[in-house]
Every structure is written in C-alpha cells, then in structure tokens.
Design brief:
By secondary structure, the protein is α/β, with parallel strands linked by helices. The chain contains 13 helices and 5 strands. The protein has 2 domains: 178 residues, HAD superfamily/HAD-like (Rossmann fold), CATH 3.40.50; 58 residues. It is globular. This is FCP1 homology domain-containing protein.
Length: 255
Amino acid sequence: MVLMGGVGVPSISICFLFQTRPTRHLCLKFRLKHSLSYSITSMALTNNTTTNERKLPILLFDIMDTLVRDPFYQDVPAFFGMSLKELIDCKHPTAWIEFEKGLIDEMELARKFFKDGRDFDLEGLKTCMRSGYSYIEGIEQLLLSLKLNNYEMHAFTNYPIWYQLIEDKLKLSKYLSWTFCSWAFGKRKPDTEFYKEVVRHLKVDPTNCIFVDDRQKNVEAAIEVGIRGVHFQNVNSLCEKLPLMGIDISTNEDR
C-alpha cells in the first residue's frame, strides 16, 4: 500500500466538518481531530468489551491491499490516461501524504495533486476509486470468522477522510472499527509514534496486539514497539499464521 495509502465509525456529517475547514484553522482542527479519535476509540472499546472481560489479543488491520484492493495502481492511472510511471512522475510528491494526515482538505488536494497545478475531475477520481474498491479474495470470510469468535478488530491505516468511500461500498464496519486512520491522528505508518498512540488508546500491553499489513516496513515498525506483526501476502498464508499466534479462525461448520 503506497502513495494512496483505517463499531466506532464517526458519522459522515461529523467527518466532513474537517474536510471543509480552511487550512488556516489547522491548529483547531488538530485539537478537534484528537478529541474525536479518542472518542471513537472509547466507543470501540465499549462495543467490544464486557464489564469484567476483554478478549485478547486485539487485531489491527491495515486496509489497502490487505483487506481491500487498492485502485491506485491500475484504475487511477487509467482514469488519467497515463501509465503508473507517468502518473508518479507528474503528481505532487507530498500532496496525497498531506491529505492522508488531514493536513489539507480535498479541495486543496485537487489544487496541488499535479506538480503543474493542472485541473482534473475530482468527483470523477472519487468515483473511479469507489468503483475499484473490493474485498481481497477470501478476506471477508476470514473477517466474519474472527467476528463470530468475538475478536476485537480495528483498522490501522494510512488513509484520508475518503475512507468513507470504502465504508459506503463495502461496509467494513460490520467486522471492525475504523479507529486508527491517519487523517484523524495526523500521523502515518511507519512512524513509531503512531503505533505507540494506538497502544495508549487501546490501554493494553503491545504484546496483546497483532498487526497485519502488506508492507514489511510497517510490520517491522510494529515489532519495534512490541506489537506482534504479520506480513500479509495472501489470505491462505494469513489463515496459516493466525492460529500459530493463538487466534481461533474456526467456525461452527469446522467444529
């Protein structure tokens, strides 16, 4: 998950308060986002625990190319009539990263997406990306098994407020909470401070968390702070690794 790249989901109306605020109000936005992200986590913990018991370990999932197909590599270049290399060469080097961190809104993204400032159809790009989102083959069945086995699951993803496009199409919140999205925290993986903030919000020892990501450097950063990391390659290998870490992925049909 590179370049274009998180049941406790903030409402669409609340989320878009941040999307439409002018850049000059960033300091206020950061305070609001921090408060919102903390409340999201508190809601998730309430929904996933009982008074006296909390099932461990907690599962943290990257989203793009771990749970959901990333449309950046094929669909987005085709939308612009370019190859992937041409798109990478002419797009602004940091605009998407700033968008993922919540530093700019989508209108500012549109203004600076290309180095030369050219105009493009922003709504058309969002439609293209929405069309390209789909579950990685076999993932939804695994998530359902984990949900039925009462595991607490959270998104831990580098993604902007457009995560709502994924949620609207795939309804990921049926299985996990969109708790740790980079846009709400102003941090991105593999920044170790982001991982530490996740552990602080969950209020557990890092060894009680398992993090799954398709990018090895993100997994290594998790291990660095004590979180158990799994490098995602495909669903079959993940289904082999999780039981070795004490995770029950069986269903009633398997028993």
